[in-house]
Amino acid sequence: MESPATKNLSHRRWREIFKTVRAAEWWEFKLSPMLATAYATAFLLKISILSLWPMLLLALFAWAACAAYVSVINDLTDLEDDLASGKVNRLVGKSRLFGAAVLASCIVPGAAVAIYWRDDPLLLSLYLASWVAFTLYSLPPVRLKKRGVFGLLADACGAHLFPALFAATLVSRRHAGPMDIIWLAAVAVWSLSLGLRGILWHQLSDLHNDEKVGLSTFARRHKTAWLRGLGNFFIFPAEVVAFCFMLCYAGSRVAIVLLCYYALLTFLRIRLWGVNLVVAIPMPRSYIIMQEYYEVFFPIAFLLSSSLRFPRDALMIVPHLLIFPRRAVESSKDAKVFIDAAVKRMVGRVRFW
User: Fold this and answer.
1) What is the pLDDT of residues 286-334, one digit of tens each?
2) Phi–psi pair at 120, nearest 5 degrees
């Protein structure tokens, strides 16, 4: 039986590993939209989402291992640059053994699920493609991170395109008919555009540190005004068109209603709190447009839509919110503040009259 001291040491080690893989930065940002794509595909193909829960749980585990690998390999390969620029790196002061152990804790689960999917070449290829993309993005001598547009595409594909296509393909395997190429094309355009916005935002956030060490990222090679135009007039419109097509093609009225609700919530934040809505250029007190919808309302919309067809699918809503709670709680708190303010205003008017 473990002593209290041994248990505390074990807990500290797990907390240290959790911080090192930066799970708080990608857990909801990357994985919730991926599961939402699976839910939407199931709704489109008239498949009960509850019936898919074992393989969705396995997919979540598999892509969490991949996302953790990304964080660790980035910190490992950026260690010297981060020290030179003064940027926080979670491997500073850690032993090589610790770094190797954390890296192994990502690779071993990833290899295990890859072996499990070895009989499905398409699923396996999409899964391994993300690992390859992020490895090429970070590791020298290739290190696509400093090779302009190639780094941009590698990160966008690894972070969003391949996971979204994987999710849609995984669910499609349960459908008796052929794969819906139109749906997959829309998912590809939407997820690639979302990924491009994400890496642009990340590189622009790191611009000051990258300038200190002379790291030639895509964002450093172009003026901010040009990047703003690229995001506002090309990438984001493509993303919106593809995503709106997905919602209409899937036929979820709930998703459209929640999109209107999200638009109202965003409008109130801008009008009453003075927050900035951005596409890809970081600003103080800003929200990245549509990210909250993708993380919270997109998955919930299709779980609700599917539950109208398969009532037991409603059982998936609570587990989903327990797995991805942070952004949903923030959205609920903001909505409560606006509702409370509206109620007080109404009560004040009634008393006045």
Assistant:
1) 889 999 999 999 999 999 999 999 999 999 999 999 999 999 999 999 9
2) -120, 90
Nearest one of 36, 43, 38 to 248, comparing CA atoms? 43
CA 253 remoteness from chain centre: 24
Integer Cα distance of 2 and 23 in angstroms: 27
**Radius of gyration of the chain, Cα coordinates, nearest whole angstrom:** 22
Residue 332 identity: S
pLDDT for residue 82: 85
* 3-state DSSP of 56-94: HHHHHHHHHHHHHHHHHHHHHHCHHHHHHHCCCCCCCCC
Angle between helices 162-172 and 181-205 (to 10 degrees): 150
Put simply, whether the predicted model's pTM sits higher than 0.90 gets the answer yes
Count the Cβ atoms, other than its own, within 10 Å of residue 46: 10
Exposure string (b/e) for 156-172, b if CB count within 10 Å is 16 or more?
Answer: bbbbbbbbbbbbbbbbb
Q: Is 276 in a helix, a strand, or coil?
A: strand
Instruction: Summarize pLDDT for 221-249 with one digit per residue, the tens.
Output: 999 999 999 999 999 999 999 999 999 99
DSSP 126-166: HHHHHHHHHHHHHSTTT-GGGSTHHHHHHHHIIIIIHHHHH
From the CB of residue 54, how many other CB atoms can be counted at a distance below 10 Å?
8
Beta bridge partners of 277: 287
CA gap 186, 190 in Å, rounded: 6
Contact between 105 and 17 (Cβ < 8 Å): yes
Q: Determine the Cα angle at 103 with ends 97 and 104, to 5°.
A: 90
Nearest 5 degrees, angle CA 263-CA 265-CA 271?
Answer: 100
Do 298 and 36 touch, CB atoms closer than 8 A?
yes
Of the listed ranges 28-32, 38-42, 72-76, the one predicted with least confidence: 72-76
Burial 212-245 (b: 16+ CB within 10 A, else e): eeebebbbbeeeeeebbebbeeebbebbeebbeb
pLDDT at 22 over 80: no
